[in-house]
Amino acid sequence: MEKILVADDDRVVLLTLSEGLREAGFEVVEACDGLQALALCQSEAPALALLDIRMPGLDGLELA
After folding, report:
1. Cα 11 to chain center, whole Å?
2. What is the pTM of this model?
């Protein structure tokens, strides 16, 4: 099963995307800011990361 990181500071967006991906059969890890997303990238090694461009701490462009 492929692992996907979803990072967004908007809880509604985060939960909606994550739920849809789980229903499609993916394993999902979630982050609510860029620093948490960076830590999860290092520890979980996701195959794909969906990143919000504007997040506190570290934005999606910096993280990518």
Report:
1. 12
2. 0.92
Number of other residues whose CB lies within 10 A of the CB of residue 46: 19
3 state SS of 53: coil
CA angle 48, 39, 35 (to 5 degrees): 100
Mean pLDDT by groups of 10 residues along the chain of 64 residues = 95 97 98 95 97 91 92
In eight-state DSSP terms, residue 59 is -
In 1-64 the beta strands, taken as DSSP E runs, fall at: 3-7, 27-31, 48-51
Query: 3-class SS at 50?
Result: strand
- Which residues make beta-bridge pairs with 28? 4
Q: What are phi and psi of 32, to 5 degrees?
A: -105, 0
